[in-house]
Amino acid sequence: MTENTYKQLIELLNRNSADYRLINHPPEGRTEIVSPMRGNKLSEAAKCIVIMVKLTKKDKKYILAVVPGDAKVDLEKIKNLFSAIYVSFAAQETAEKLAGSVSGTILPFSFHPELQLIVDPILLKNEEIFFNAARLNLSMALKTADYIKITKPRTEDIAQY
């Protein structure tokens, strides 16, 4: 799972001539701990959380919410965005399956058709964004302009400070 996701990421970035660098560090997935290890500000880290959105009793969707590392995902804002009846963090097993990597290593990219990417625009004000590269011991610094060009993310105010 994780190895394929990592390969997909690298192939996608290379195919698009993205400007990135890999950063080795001790195994860690918590943004506030790994950020100093890789030398970035918390606000430059892409915190990636899979959210389950219930639109009706029978209809649900999954969102890959990406916010700056010094923020939290505001579930109420996501609920309002979709006029949902209920919003919660996805179950860990579901999140990992949709993201293609374990918690703490989820990428700010969606390779799964059932996982819709939504990014808080404040994160995109950074020159680079930092995130674990589908591995606990390897991170990536990626030029934000390349991230935007490749993902063409839906941007919404979903962060809570």
Write the layout of secondary structure elements.
Layout: H1 2-15, E1 20-24, H2 31-38, E2 46-54, E3 60-68, E4 72-73, H3 75-81, E5 86-89, H4 92-99, E6 115-119, E7 128-135, E8 138-143, H5 144-151, E9 154-155, E10 159-160
Parallel strand pairs: 3-6, 6-9
Antiparallel strand pairs: 1-8, 2-3, 2-5, 4-10, 7-8
CATH architecture: Alpha-Beta Complex
Number of structural domains: 1
Q: What's the mean pLDDT score?
A: 96
Radius of gyration, CA atoms, in whole angstroms: 15 Å
- Percentage of helical residues? 25-40%
Within CATH, the superfamily carries the name: YbaK/aminoacyl-tRNA synthetase-associated domain
> With helices defined by DSSP (H or I, 4 residues minimum), what is the helix count?
5
Percent range for β-strand residues = 25-35%
What strand line-up does the widest sheet have? 5-2-3-6-9
Contiguous runs where pLDDT drops below 50 for at least 5 residues: none
CATH class: Alpha Beta
Q: Assign the CATH topology.
A: YbaK protein
Distance between the termini: 33 Å
Global outline: globular
Order of helices and strands: HEHEEEHEHEEEHEE
Number of DSSP strands?
A: 10
Q: Structural class of the helices, strands and pairings?
A: alpha+beta
Q: Main beta sheet, described?
A: 5 strands, mixed
